[in-house]
Amino acid sequence: MEKIAITSIKYAYFDMDGTILDDQGKLIFENLQAILRLQNANVKIGIATGRPHYLIKAITSQINLDLPVINNDGTEIYDLKSGTSEIIGLIDKNALKQIGTYLHNHQLGYKAYTNEKIYAYTPNGPVEHQGNREAANHPKENLSNVEQLVKLPILKLMTIVWDLVLFQKVWDHFISIPKLFVRNSNNFLIDLTPDWTSKGYALKLLENRNIIDCKNLLAFGDNENDRIMVQYAKYGVVMGNASNSLKEITPYIAKPNTSAGVAKFINEMIDFNK
């Protein structure tokens, strides 16, 4: 495959978990060096993540981001320089009530995110998954009933169901709820967001404001929440650890995240002399 000329790339957005981070949630050194190499070549750098903006210090402490942060899977855009948050979409209140009623009735824990804090219902202990220490250590406000949840402006909600049979039952229930995007982003984890929001939709908003131009955009992702973003970018790259269906949408496939696939792609597939 022909290399991509660096002069054709002006912007680059990176997913975090499963892409530039290792499976323990740490930024891989080789990836950091490769991203900085892009930045030194005048490519503006941004992050598009499922995490809320207040849980990305693993990145912002090491990279001076040039572009707004697309976070909570595209339900929010956050400007690091001004510290301002723009809410793109909230989970529909009727959908939120159905979600909360089901989870509380079955005593299944969850975390719900606003643009300011995390709320949690934890009848069986913390709702955490491997690879996100920032989330595990971040303060949470406990919820005890559905009424409390429904009053909140929720951008995203996540639950973890460890039993495979129960997981399928929960999944089937959630996909029957209107106006809801349901996905499995990490093993037994289920993420819920408004069905019309996505990282790709957030990119379109930024392009409409002349902040980026997708004809000169490089984007990396590994999961279903990255699909539209990868398709929208001129150079959309899917990680080797992604599903086969995701790999079918682009000719650009990187090595898995555990092999510093982002760094290898940047260093091997981008011509820094053109």
Write structural notes for this entry.
The protein contains eleven helices and 16 strands. The protein has helices spanning 16-20, 29-40, 57-60, 93-105, 133-137, 146-150, 164-175, 199-208, 227-232, 244-247, 261-269; strands at 4-5, 11-14, 44-47, 69-71, 76-79, 84-87, 110-113, 118-121, 140-142, 156-160, 180-186, 189-194, 217-221, 235-238, 252-253, 270-271. The chain has 274 residues and is of the alpha/beta class. The model has no long low-confidence stretch (mean pLDDT 94). The chain is globular. The chain folds into two domains: 4-88 and 197-271, Rossmann fold; 93-194, Hypothetical Protein, Haloacid Dehalogenase-like Hydrolase, Chain: A, domain 2. Helix 2 (29-40) packs parallel to helix 11 (261-269). Strand 11 and strand 12 form a beta hairpin. The longest helix has 13 residues, at 93-105. The strands form four sheets. The protein has a six-stranded mixed β-sheet with strand order 9-8-7-10-12-11, with helices on one face. A five-stranded parallel β-sheet has the order 3-2-13-14-15.
Q: What keyword list fits this structure?
A:
274 residues, alpha/beta, Rossmann fold, Hypothetical Protein, Haloacid Dehalogenase-like Hydrolase, Chain: A, domain 2, six-stranded mixed β-sheet, five-stranded parallel β-sheet, 11 helices, 23% strand
List the helices and strands and how they pair.
Layout: E1 4-5, E2 11-14, H1 16-20, H2 29-40, E3 44-47, H3 57-60, E4 69-71, E5 76-79, E6 84-87, H4 93-105, E7 110-113, E8 118-121, H5 133-137, E9 140-142, H6 146-150, E10 156-160, H7 164-175, E11 180-186, E12 189-194, H8 199-208, E13 217-221, H9 227-232, E14 235-238, H10 244-247, E15 252-253, H11 261-269, E16 270-271
Parallel strand pairs: 1-16, 2-3, 2-13, 8-9, 13-14, 14-15
Antiparallel strand pairs: 4-5, 5-6, 7-8, 7-10, 10-12, 11-12
Helix pairs in contact: 2-11
